[in-house]
Give the backbone structure.
Amino acid sequence: MLNDNYIYTEIAERTGLSAPTVSIALGKMEKDGLICRKTDPGDSRKTRVYLTEKGMALDRAMREMLNE
């Protein structure tokens, strides 16, 4: 997810998790400053999810650990 952004349903589909589970997880991630949510400029019914700088740093660190 490093440079991408997704809507809730895309995250649920890609992870195999239910939409409510994704919503709860994203709420916790937002509280921890790892993601931010923004309304889709092309469709105000959708909310896009973006990694923050803190989230990108964690993503990089986790990928490095997995590569070792």
